[in-house]
Design brief:
Blueprint (H helix, E strand, L loop, with lengths): L10 H17 L11 H14 L6 E2 L2 E2 L6 H13 L4 H26 L2 H12 L2 H7 L5 H18 L5 H15 L5 H14 L11 H24 L7 H14 L10 H9 L4 H13 L6 H19 L12 H13 L4 H35 L11 H21 L5 H26 L5 H11 L8 E4 L4 H7 L6 E2 L5 H8 L5 E6 L3 H4 L7 E8 L14 E8 L1
Parallel strand pairs: 3-4, 3-5
Antiparallel strand pairs: 1-2, 5-7, 6-7
Length: 558
């Protein structure tokens, strides 16, 4: 790119700016949104761990739940102990901090293998990728898993020419600690990533050194220790963490029982999750293939590592979009290396083409965001939606700032560093503003947290054993109800038991989705009438979702 012979001034300040920006994007208002989907599992397991004082046997509503290893739960527990609270904020902090650390590790790897500017650009691209921000602001294990993978790869290259016990042990320790967050992918993926380099010039012989085997065994013992202690300390627990490791990681890979996405799922999920940088990545992919013979050895390794990881996840029988997340630091490095270091006439054409398409994509996005508040009065009558106070103003400001930056980019040469800097700044505003400002503001329209809070107040004096859900209960709801003991849950095959429950001494509370009314109402006992009905709100624009909203009957007797 233009200006490549003049490295950016004060790179330490650029790195500091990157990490501060990452801290803002990933931490600002991270706790303002209610729990979403699987987040409730992490929050509720921690709540019950604190209630029981048992941090080795995770439960949800009193039932064993060892589907994931323990480390991510413990990280949330640690934050909760430090802050003195357990809420959405403390549940998401570990993921956000892991995301910041992953950006730093990506920069370090890029600097070591190519140049500091490659590392810095890769850090910015990773930070502003849609999938990376989304999962780094989510209370699950995805961000920690990604961090473990990129740390392993960065450590390998830092110690590649020092194959001693410490180098081997730290590599495996990072990998197995990562496996204690989500599963064995944190071990397999780093191995696959470094495999193309190990196969060159006989480097694979190093793995047969006695110190390597010793390091591997010791790190494996660290990994097994929590599972062994959990099994020995509670024989009555009912679930084995190691059995579930086998089922969730190995059996699921070859004989999936759910999450059966098509074999081509990652062909479109990678571009979607890497938005808005997909045009540049596609240009990097095409340019690299056209100039394969001219690429340096480390760039070839990087591309081969991405390819091997892609094949590994694609060949699995169980596929979901976010499984492929650990590859994104490498994709960011590939794209940054393409922009900053790769030489050649064809590469330059791909680079210019990619920058033009990238500018057009971000321009369309920024333009749409800028125009939306201006034309809102024209479409308000057709859209039954009322934005929260100040929302349209925030959208207008973000859109205007991005448009100004992109106009500046348009005045720069297509392949210049100045244009790339303007594109990155626009992405920071658009993606960062969306996740840290706009999305939290819209959370007032999500009904589950507010409804659960009202339900918690209404049931404050009712024992948990007199509260029942049909036919299931979300972990989010159990967390927000905050009962000291489990609530009752009756499934579709337990209507007789539910009827008996409803006939018991008052008060009785039954909570179900509205679509279950025809099943619930005939089960009310003679003389049993709702003393109160608490319905989860339905906004005017959500009429199609009305049957999925909850309703709670508080039963009394005439």
């Amino acid at each position: 790119m233009e200006g490549n012979n003049h490295p950016p001034p004060n790179k330490g300040m650029v790195l500091l700016l990157l990490l501060l920006t990452a801290s803002f994007i990933l931490l600002w208002a991270v706790g303002d949104r209610g729990l979403w989907a699987a987040e409730g599992r992490w929050a509720e397991i921690n709540r019950e761990m604190f209630l029981s004082g048992d941090f080795f046997h995770p439960t949800i509503n009193g039932e064993p739940y060892f589907d994931k290893p323990l480390l991510t739960y413990w990280l949330i527990s640690l934050v909760s102990l430090i802050t003195g609270s357990l809420n959405e904020w403390t549940a998401r902090i570990p993921s956000a901090l892991a995301g910041i650390a992953a950006v730093w590790a990506t920069v370090r790897l890029g600097k070591r293998l190519w140049s500091e500017r490659v590392g810095l650009i890769a850090g910015w691209l990773l930070l502003t990728g849609y999938g990376f921000i989304f999962w780094s602001r989510t209370a699950t294990a995805e961000s920690e898993n990604l961090l473990a993978v990129i740390l392993c790869v960065a450590w390998y290259w830092a110690q590649r020419d020092r194959p001693n016990f410490t180098s081997f042990f730290v590599f495996w320790l990072i990998a197995f600690l990562g496996a204690l967050t989500k599963g064995l992918t944190a071990v397999v993926v780093p191995v696959l990533a470094v495999l193309p380099d190990l196969l060159r010039r006989g480097r694979w012989r190093l793995i047969f050194k006695p110190v390597h085997l010793l390091a591997l065994v010791l790190a494996l013992m660290v990994y097994l220790a929590p599972f062994v202690y959990a099994s020995l300390s509670r024989p009555d627990y009912g679930e084995s963490g190691l059995v579930l490791v086998f089922q969730e990681n190995i059996l699921r890979y070859f004989q999936p029982f759910d999450h059966k996405g098509p074999i081509y799922i990652y062909l479109y999920q990678i571009p979607l999750l890497f938005l808005p940088w997909s045009p540049l990545f596609l240009a990097a992919l095409i340019g690299s293939l056209f100039n394969w013979k001219k690429l340096d050895e480390r760039t070839r390794w990087l591309i081969q590592a991405v390819g091997v990881i892609f094949l590994f996840f694609s060949l699995s029988g169980s596929r979901r979009s976010y499984y492929i997340l650990p590859v994104f630091p490498l994709i960011a490095l590939w794209t940054a290396n393409f922009l900053m270091e790769m030489k050649g006439e064809r590469l330059e054409k791909c680079r210019i083409w990619g920058m033009k398409v990238q500018l057009a994509l971000l321009g369309l996005l920024a333009g749409a965001i800028f125009i939306a508040p201006l034309i809102w009065p024209l479409i308000r009558s057709r859209v039954d939606f009322t934005p929260p106070p100040g929302f349209l103003t925030a959208v207008l400001i973000l859109g205007a700032a991005a448009v100004i930056l992109l106009l500046a980019a348009l005045k720069s040469n297509a392949g210049s560093s100045r244009r790339l800097s303007a594109l990155i700044a626009a992405a920071v505003i658009l993606l960062g503003g969306y996740f840290s400002i706009l999305l939290p503001a819209l959370d007032i329209y999500r009904t589950e947290r507010a409804y659960a809070g009202e339900l918690r107040e209404k049931t404050a004096g009712i024992p948990a054993e007199r509260i029942a859900f049909y036919p299931d209960v979300r972990s989010n709801m159990v967390f927000y109800l905050d009962k000291k003991t489990p609530v009752r849950v009756f499934d579709e095959n337990q209507t007789a038991e539910l009827k008996e429950f409803l006939a018991g001494p008052p008060p009785r509370v039954i909570i179900a989705k509205r679509r279950e009314n025809d099943i619930i109402l005939p089960l009310f006992p003679p003389g049993g009438v709702p003393a109160e009905i608490l319905k989860e709100p339905v906004h005017p624009w959500e009429k199609r979702k009305a049957r999925k909203r909850r309703i709670a009957w508080f039963l009394a007797y005439e």
